[in-house]
């Protein structure tokens, strides 16, 4: 399930209530975060291929190494 909380920015009372309930569900174990799969930026083509399969669940994250690490 996904939703856009920005619609509630003007209704802080409802936003606060919704977030408290949402965080409570995480604490109770009723909700679990989606998995995160990381790919090195140099492997962006592999990450894109994974997205194209429509079999991915969660988030795909590209990681960028620091400049000093790339110079070695």
Description:
- By secondary structure, the chain is α+β, with helices and mostly antiparallel strands.
- The protein folds into two domains: 1-32; 33-72, no CATH class.
- It has helices at 12-28, 44-52, 67-70; strands at 36-40, 59-63.
- The chain has three helices and two strands.
- The model has no long low-confidence stretch (mean pLDDT 87).
- Strand 1 (36-40), helix 2 and strand 2 (59-63) form a beta-alpha-beta unit.
- The chain has a two-stranded parallel ribbon.
- Helix content is 42%, strand content 14%.
Helix-strand blueprint:
Layout: H1 12-28, E1 36-40, H2 44-52, E2 59-63, H3 67-70
Parallel strand pairs: 1-2
Summarize the structure.
With 72 residues, the chain is an alpha+beta fold. 42% of the residues lie in helices and 14% in strands.
Structure annotation, total helices: 3
- N-end to C-end Cα span: 43 Å
Class by helix and strand content?
alpha+beta
Order of helices and strands: HEHEH
* Residue share in β-strands: 5-15%
Helix content: 40-55%
Number of domains: 2
Note the main sheet: 2 strands, parallel
Shape: elongated
Poorly predicted regions: none
Q: What is the topology, as strand order, of the major beta sheet? A: 1-2
What is the CA-based Rg, rounded?
18 Å
Number of strands: 2
Mean pLDDT figure: 87
